[in-house]
Design a protein that fits this description.
The structure holds two protein chains of two kinds. Chain A is an alpha/beta fold. Chain A contains 24 helices and nine strands. In chain A, the strands form two sheets. In chain A, strands 2-3-1-4-5-7 form a six-stranded mixed beta sheet, with helices on both faces. In chain A, β2 and β3 form a beta hairpin. In chain A, α22 runs antiparallel to α24 and α23 crosses α24. The longest helix of chain A is centred in the middle third of the chain and has 50 residues. The mean pLDDT of chain A is 91. By secondary structure, chain B is α+β, with helices and mostly antiparallel strands. Chain B has a single domain, classed as SH3 type barrels, CATH 2.30.30.90. Helices cover 18% and strands 40% of the residues of chain B. Chain B has two helices and six strands; from the N terminus they run ββαβββαβ. Chain B has a six-stranded antiparallel beta sheet. Chain B starts with a strand and ends with a strand. The chains are: A alpha/beta, B alpha+beta. Chains A and B meet through α3, α8, α12 and β9 of A and α1, β3, β5 and α2 of B. β9 of chain A pairs antiparallel with β5 of chain B, so a sheet runs across the interface.
Chain lengths: 569, 77
């Protein structure tokens, strides 16, 4: 046994079981399409260490999206399949099971969400189901870990069924027979959560709920983010780190190359973490004291909403509006993920069906959805000048999202496909799961962002020292000064923006800009190009040709919007 | 009588009769558990030809307006 595949319908808990089997940490949520790429880990069975692969969910073996294609392609390489089945919805799930039984691969069925069957008045005769299917069936509850040991033991009894290939209608008939024999339903009363489910899916109550949820989410994100900055991170840097840096500066000697690179420029004889721009001062302050607090608060809220199961309902609520910009409601999910970081957002574009839709979603996200790191920097830098300026920046980006979406929807051939999505039941998020997911995302940020920020700041200092920035400043001054009204030195921010958008926004700080210039600079930085990590991901998802088209659009939009803001403000 | 899904009232139940659509869509929606002979309950209908949400067995699904137009339901009226 070398390769074990976890396969099943979307949102049945494959990823949770994967984590339980392998101990690997992966993102799990309560909506279909969380896993869009396969993840591999290893488990231990006696002396063997077979690979376990978490395959994206699929309803059948005829793929309709790229995520499902991945699933079907994986099938060839598997030695054993654990077919994860949602016990509360056996009938529908058995269709894929019957298709898998015809593939001549060893199979074990994990009857997941077993605990939920009890509340829902569903009674399944497991022994009988085993007989009917001819393979082991194990009830499991991924979230609590119940049944996982039993599942591992029974993997050895996996059987390769000798099922004949049958037609669709034969399969449904067979499923009908099986259900008749193994499942009994008893009446149950609607719970509070189910009533809430009903309310949040009807337009009259659902729209106010959606607005309330979004407003509450952002208020809480801001409250926690600002709180962490004011009471923890800023004091930490001001009281503890600044004196050390001043001493280091004294040792290095002011105006030496090392002083400029490591500590940066002193402002009135002191370290200003936003202005000094040394690798050890601003380099640490930006990712840790300005961005990290918002990353923590954003991903905490996102994790709770994901696990609760709210996102697919939001998708239904916004479906109509999204059609006007060439997408359907489910595209709200990559956009929400993109608000955290555009890279996972770009990956999640896979859940969308067509090339047109992916192109529109990618181009809109890269231009009009700033990531949380960038948002945090803009709030930190521009917020000091007054809240209304934040309103101008984010308002401009929002209008841009709508206008650009409307135009692309008109200009691009074809029309947006319609939504067809399963809406999961609400589940109360479990503290342990929420904290685990938050930690994965935050540590991911620390591991990936901090080195790049430090590298970026080092890079700027070197470019300055070598006078390369001066050269670019002169070359691009017609655009920067002529069109956007920015000082030509702002080119350094645009250059670094390819690497990290947060550092780029931070670089506007020491330029002594007027408020108007700061607003234009921040807006243009959000629009003109995605950071390199997002760019690479988008090339992978769209192909180089579509990505070049998309990038051309981005640059043009930045030119136009920057100029317009310069004229209007 | 048999009407398309968009004309079923909110809260009304019926039996799925047939689909008037391409093979690919039929296969997809059937593997999601929505297929002829099943009892279907409409939960809500969104403004301006928005998605229709339905419940079949234990599953809730949101279906775009155009797709819903091609799903025919027998209701008791």
């Amino acid at each position: 046994m070398n390769k074990i595949l976890l396969m099943g319908n979307p949102n049945v808990g494959k990823s949770v079981i994967f984590s339980r089997l392998t101990g690997a940490r992966i993102i799990v949520s309560n909506y279909p399409g969380t896993t869009v790429e396969f993840t591999q880990g290893h488990m231990k069975i006696d002396e063997e260490r077979p690979a376990v692969i978490d395959v994206p969910g699929t309803y059948n073996l005829e793929p309709t999206s790229k995520a499902e294609e991945v699933a079907v392609r994986m099938l060839k390489d598997g030695d054993l399949i654990i077919n994860v089945v949602n016990a509360t919805n056996l009938e529908r799930n058995l269709y894929l099971t019957l298709q898998l039984l015809e593939k001549n691969i060893s199979l074990v069925v994990a009857l997941n969400m077993w605990d939920e069957t009890k509340h829902q008045g569903i009674n399944i005769d497991i022994e009988r189901l085993e007989k009917e299917l001819g393979v082991p069936v194990v009830p499991t509850c991924g979230l609590t870990g119940e049944g996982i040991k039993e599942l591992i033991i029974r993997l050895k009894q996996a059987k390769t069924p000798k099922a004949k290939i049958t037609s669709d209608s034969d399969k449904w008939e067979r499923i009908g027979e099986i259900i008749e024999r193994v499942q009994k339903l008893t009446h149950h009363h609607h719970t509070f959560l189910q009533r809430l489910e009903d309310l949040s899916i009807r337009p009259l109550s659902g729209i106010p709920i959606a607005l309330g949820v979004i407003y509450a989410a952002f208020t809480i994100i801001r409250f926690i983010g600002e709180g962490l900055i004011t009471y923890i991170f800023e004091p930490l840097f001001d009281k503890a780190w600044a004196p050390i840096m001043l001493k280091l500066g004294a040792v290095l000697g002011e105006d030496t190359f090392l002083h400029n690179v490591l500590v940066g420029n002193l402002i009135d004889g002191a370290i200003d973490f936003k202005m000094s721009f040394g690798v050890l001062t601003t380099g640490f302050f930006v990712p840790i004291a300005m961005v990290l607090p918002y990353i923590i608060s954003f991903y905490l809220m996102l994790g709770i909403l994901e696990d609760f199961g709210y996102l697919p309902r939001l998708a239904v609520m916004v479906d109509n509006l999204m059609h006007h910009i060439g997408l359907h409601g489910f595209a709200i999910i990559p956009m929400m993920l993109g608000l955290g970081c555009n890279v996972p957002g770009a990956l999640a574009i896979r859940i969308l069906e067509g090339r047109r839709e992916k192109f529109i979603a990618a181009t809109l996200m890269a231009v009009a959805i700033p990531c949380m790191a960038q948002i945090a920097m803009i709030v930190g830098l521009v917020g000091e000048r007054g809240g209304q300026y934040l309103g101008i920046i984010f308002g401009t980006l929002f209008i841009l999202l709508i206008v650009k979406g409307l135009i692309m929807n008109k200009v691009l051939k074809g029309s947006s496909p319609e939504i067809l999505v399963e809406i999961p039941p609400y589940r109360i998020p479990q503290l342990e799961a929420v904290v685990k997911k938050l930690w994965m995302r935050v540590s991911g940020f620390l591991k990936e962002a901090v080195p790049y920020v430090l590298l970026g700041i080092l890079f700027v200092n070197i470019l300055y020292a070598l006078k390369i920035i001066d050269f670019f400043s002169r070359a691009f001054s017609p655009i920067l000064t002529g069109l956007w009204g920015l000082p030509k030195e702002a080119i350094s921010a645009l250059i670094i923006g390819f690497l990290r958008k947060d550092v780029a926004v931070g670089m506007l700080g020491p330029l002594n800009l007027t408020t108007k210039q700061l607003v234009i600079g921040s807006t243009v930085l959000a629009i003109y190009f995605p950071c390199i990590a997002t760019f690479v991901m988008l090339v992978k998802e769209l192909g180089i040709k579509d990505m070049l088209k998309s990038a051309t659009i981005m640059i043009f939009v930045a030119l136009i919007v920057g100029t317009l803001l310069n004229i209007i403000l | 009588m048999v009407i398309d899904l968009t004309r079923v009232k909110n809260g009304e139940s019926g039996i799925i009769k047939e689909f008037d659509s391409g093979y690919e869509f039929m296969r997809k929606i059937q593997s999601m558990g929505i297929r002829p002979g099943k009892n279907i309950k409409k939960l809500s209908s969104h403004f301006w030809r928005g998605p229709q949400t339905v419940e079949v067995d234990n599953v809730r699904v949101a279906i775009g307006w155009g797709m819903a137009k091609n799903i025919f339901i027998e209701v008791n009226r």
